[in-house]
Amino acid sequence: MIYNVLVPLSQDVGFLNVFRYITFRSVWALLTALIISILFGPAMIRWLQRVKFGQHIREDGPKHQAKQGTPTMGGIMIIFSVVISTILWADLTNHYVWLTLLVFAGFGAIGFADDYIMVVKKRNKGLSAKTKFFFQCAVATIAIALLIQEPAYSTQLSVPFFKNFNPDLGWFYLPFAMVVMVGASNAVNLTDGLDGLAIGPMVVAMACFAIFIYVTGNAKLADYLDMHSIQGMGEVTVFCGAMVGAGLGFLWFNAHPAQVFMGDVGSLSLGGALGFVAVLAKQELLLAIVGGVFVFETLSVILQVGYFKLTGGKRIFKMAPLHHHFELKGIPESKIIVRFWILSILMALMALSTLKLR
Ligand code: 57M
What we know:
The chain is mostly helical.
C-alpha cells in the first residue's frame, strides 16, 4: 500500500524512490511483522487463555503433561501480522502477492476450523482427515489454476543440478503442485510437536525462499544463475520477509518453555504457504532439501506405519514422528529442538549452494 501511495509521488520528492526497492520493502515487512507480533503477542496469549483456547495433552506419548492448558491457536497472530505487513509494504497491483495471501488465509481457515472443533467444542478430534484433505486440495487447486493462467508463469519443472532438463508438465502441473502444497502443509503439521520445532525451520526455509523468489523476479540475476525468470514474482519477497518476521515474533513466545502453541491454524497455513512459495519460485523439487526437517519427520511416519503394517506390529522408531523417538530416548526437549534447527540451517545452505551447481 505504501508502495502504491508513495512511489507515484517520487517524481516530485526524490527520496521516496527508495520505496521502489523490493529489498528495502521486504526488510521493513519483516520488521513490521516482528514488531506487531511482539507488541500484540502478550495480549493475544491473555485472550486465548481467557476464552479457554487451551491445548489438551494426549497421555499416550512422551510426557508433556506440564504443558496441559497452554494456549493454542497462536497461528492467528502469525496470520494477522503477515497479512497486515504484506498489505502495508507490497505492491497491491501484483497478482502473485494476492494469490499467496489467498493460499495462506485459505489453509489458515481449514486449520482454524480444525482447532475450533477440537479446542472450543471440546471434541477429541477436529475435522476428519478426509475433510481436511479435501479442503486442502480445493484451496491448492484454485490457487494453481489461477496461477497457471498468468502469462508469465510456466508449467515447466526445474530439476536441481540439471539445468538443461526442464520438462513441461502442462495441465499435469496442477496435480503435481497440489501434492507439493498439501504435502508441505501436512509435513509442517506433523513437525509441530515440540516448542519452536516447526517455526524455527519455517523461518529458515522462508528466508531461503525469499532469496529464490527475489532471483526469479529479477531477469538479470535469473539469467546469470540459469533460473526461471518470471516478471513480477520478486514482489512475493515482501510476503516472505513478513513471514520471517512473524515467525521470529511467534518464536519469541513459543520458545521452550512455550507460552503458546500455533495450533493447526498456524501449522497448516505456514506449510501451505511454504509449498506455494516453492511453486512460485519454480523450485518445487528443491523444497525437499530446503524443508529437509519437515521431510524427515514425514518420512519417519511413513516408514513407521508401513513397517508396522508389513511386520504385523513391529516398529522402527520408538514412536513417530521422529522428535517423539528422540524424546523417548531421553534427550531433553531443548536439545532436540536446537539440533533440528541446526539441521534446517544446513539443509537451507545446501539448497542455496545449488544456485551455482547447475
Ligand atoms: C498434530 N500435534 C501435537 C499444538 C500444535 C499419523 C500420526 C503420526 C499423526 C500425529 C499427529 O496427530 N500429528 C499432528 C501433532 C500437539 O500439538 C498441537 O497440535 C498443533 C499442531 N497441529 O500447534 O496445538 C502436541 O505437541 C506438543 N507441542 C509442544 N510445543 C509446541 O510448540 O510441545 C506442540 C507445539 C501438544 C504438545 O504436547 O499437545 C501432538 O504431538 O499431538 N500423531 C502423533 O504424533 C502421535 N504418534 C503416533 O501415534 N505414532 C504411532 C504411529 C501411528 C505413527 C507410532 O509411532 O507408533 C503421537 N502424538 C502424541 N502422543 N502427542 C502419539 C502420542
